[in-house]
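Intended use. Records such as the DUF1080 domain-containing protein entry shown here are meant for training and evaluating sequence-to-structure methods. They are not intended to support clinical decisions.
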Amino acid sequence: MLRLLPLIALTGLLISAAPTKKVTLFNGKDLTGWKIYGTEKWYVDGGELICESGPDKQYGYLATEAPYKNFDLSLQFKQEANGNSGVFFRSSIEGTKISGWQVEVAPKDHDTGGIYESYGRGWLEQIPPEKETILKPGEWNTLRIRVEGDHVQTFLNKQPMVDMHDAKIGAANGSIALQIHDGGGIKVRWRKLVLKEI
């Protein structure tokens, strides 16, 4: 005899089977969905998103117009010149002052994949020396950032870098933002920025 599940149970099954929403943050053509902060250079070339120091040699940010709280973000970057940059999450920006948390993107031996809190506690998690060999200078690298509640995980070229919990992060919300560090001489290429909302 065939047993029929109650409607509530069926509804629960449908909800749990719903796919996560995938968002392509960069369309490969222009900066639709993003906002520039500061005077540094952000442009598209050959389907890639380029950030480059401008004549002011100051901090610059390119932030999503939409906020993202819980997500799994994957992107690729290639460092040219200095390559000191980063990916902020749950951030807010006024002028060129940013509040939030940065997943570091930097030259070798400078903690790429680590977590830094700007205008706050500073480094929350740095990278141990044995993991500094995971970065491929001058080549395409894949960075994955997963943030759910107070839990943050980062992966560089499929290798785990950070796995931490933080109550302050858990209480926050805000945009994704790419950074140009101050000092000049910086150029980084980005592509394949795909986010899955959790």
